[in-house]
Q: What sequence folds into this?
């Protein structure tokens, strides 16, 4: 693919990740938008791009407008981009394509992955979910994603919401259970990192077996003595105790 | 350490893992016990060991009696081992040392790790939690664990229960959240494995930041629109909906 002119809207984790990937593929970040000009400038400098805090100043000749901002800001940003001919995409799992209704060349470019500034992504081959108003733009975005070595899936807005909900359980909620484990360790002055080999091995198993097959522990064993002991230990935290009970019940009923 | 004579009681995942490690260190598995003689025999054969289904036939001259069985079976097995001089250990996170009260040389040898037969453990350097009635046996077990490259911690029964509870959240409950994610994918005919790069990357981040810092998603962003949409999608599964609500509330209140 020849060099594409790209405007990045947003300076967060997703914007940072893809700006880097676009650069590696020799595309040109021509402009960076953020309502805070300082942030826009600091981000833009790294790519020798222009910075702006004003949507009326958006470069009108770019090939791609890459909106990677908070869900609630997507629609209003899209509404305030005018007179552009390139494709306008957003990168959210939970926002419909419809949020970009002002633009004929509109699409969603949703990475099923988590990014954090400053942490090099170890799993670079993740699914990239594309939905496009125009068939020809779909091809273009597919090519862009394939160049990055991503796994392309064509997914409509309803399907994307389904996958996003699944991802919330599998990533956000799983991470929160790990956080609770860390908190319980710290509360008793044990080093939380002691749990890491166990956590990593649990995930490693998912390369070979399903999470249903991988389940271990008192709940799946119906080990009522241990469960009662654990609930007793959680007596001073009603919400944690309720969570333990609910998860245990759910494990037991869904693995009949 | 010179060759130790070891009796393995149990044929499950933990027994299998440690039998293998003991062998690699040139220790001798002299006998395998399981109430089902077929199972005992099949396990023992791999180690050129005797098999027995009868606790009255336990070899009385071994250095170590390694009880790796279900929690509820530990005490009765220990009670029925007689006239032995070696150390009797169990490997459970949730059972007190007291369960081995019959034996003067009694100890706990608890691996903070998950094992599954047939899956090669990727994270071999995990914490090994030791509690021993006799100080000299503590030294012996430490040496045994260090030989395997494990991280030795001396932990009493109360502390072990605390760590076990934390591990249930960080491993069992986190795995269950992943299972729910897989189920939600499958229910809508999406390939559950699409979630794997995301799941792996979430865990990879924990090498650098805490799970509290790593949290992303609608709950931590207080994205009420997406949360409401997700709850609506879970309307046909009351227990899953409750779990979503509870986890969301817990994320929001514990990351103030």
A:
């Amino acid at each position: 693919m020849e060099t594409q002119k790209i405007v990045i809207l947003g300076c967060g984790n997703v914007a940072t990740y893809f700006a880097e990937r676009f650069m590696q593929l020799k595309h040109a970040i021509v402009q960076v938008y953020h309502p805070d000009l300082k942030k826009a400038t600091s981000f833009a400098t790294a790519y020798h791009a222009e910075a702006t805090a004003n949507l009326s100043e958006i470069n009108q000749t770019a090939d791609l407008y890459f909106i990677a901002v908070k869900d609630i800001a997507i629609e209003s940003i899209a509404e305030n981009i005018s007179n552009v001919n390139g494709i306008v995409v957003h990168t959210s799992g939970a926002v419909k394509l419809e949020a970009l209704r002002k633009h004929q060349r509109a699409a969603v470019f949703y990475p099923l992955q988590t990014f954090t500034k400053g942490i090099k992504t170890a799993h670079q081959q993740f699914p990239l979910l594309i939905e496009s108003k125009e068939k020809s733009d779909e091809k273009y975005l597919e090519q862009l994603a394939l160049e990055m070595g991503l796994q392309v899936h064509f997914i409509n807005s309803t399907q994307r919401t389904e996958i996003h909900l699944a991802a919330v359980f599998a990533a956000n909620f799983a991470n929160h259970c790990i956080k609770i484990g860390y908190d319980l360790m710290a509360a008793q002055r044990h080093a939380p990192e002691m749990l890491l080999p166990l956590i990593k091995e649990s995930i490693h198993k998912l390369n070979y077996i399903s999470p249903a097959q991988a389940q271990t522990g008192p709940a799946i064993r119906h080990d009522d003595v241990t469960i009662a002991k654990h609930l007793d230990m959680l007596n001073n935290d009603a919400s944690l105790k309720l969570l333990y009970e609910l998860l245990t019940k759910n494990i037991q009923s869904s693995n009949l």
Notes: Chain A is about 45% helix and 15% strand. The mean pLDDT of chain A is 96. The first helix of chain A runs from residue 13 to 24. The longest strand of chain A covers residues 28-33.
